[in-house]
Design a protein that fits this description.
With 125 residues, this protein is an all-alpha fold. It is built from eight helices and no strands. It has two domains: 9-49; 57-124, lambda repressor-like DNA-binding domains (434 Repressor (Amino-terminal Domain)), CATH 1.10.260.40. Helix 1 (9-22) packs antiparallel against helix 2 (30-49) and helix 4 crosses helix 6 (97-107).
């Protein structure tokens, strides 16, 4: 099994072609094992070179609202009053740890996204 690290885009393309040839390989066979190793190498290369940054916390909340048909009123149990929801979504007030916990627990928005630093109106001033 002649396998080497993927260092260039050309290496990655060649490995993807090899994966395509092995795609139907049965698990726990030499071909299946080779396929599994090659997929792992491509995943590592792509993660290093094409990683997708985590979304901005407020953008993540807005996306969550839009994708689930939620309104600002639906956020009140997690963030606070109507005015507080407005301040947070308009970036006039940052999310607090309690809000982050509530949004994570109540709506399932990943905490690692919500705790990231992000700009507020005060930051821009």
């Amino acid at each position: 099994m002649d396998i080497k690290p993927i260092k260039t885009e050309t290496d990655c393309q060649a490995t993807l072609e090899e994966i395509e040839k092995l795609f139907a390989a049965a698990p726990d066979t030499p071909e299946g094992d080779r396929l599994e190793v090659l997929v792992t190498l491509v995943e590592a290369y792509e993660e290093k070179h094409y990683s997708i940054p985590k979304p901005d916390p407020i953008e993540a909340v807005l996306y969550h609202m839009e994708s689930r048909g939620l309104t600002r009123r639906d956020l009140q149990p997690y963030i606070g009053s109507r005015a507080r929801v407005s301040e947070v979504l308009n970036r006039k007030r940052p999310l607090t740890m309690e809000m982050i916990r509530n949004l994570h627990k109540g709506l399932g928005i990943p905490a690692e996204i919500l705790i990231q630093p992000y700009h507020t109106v005060k930051d821009a001033a």
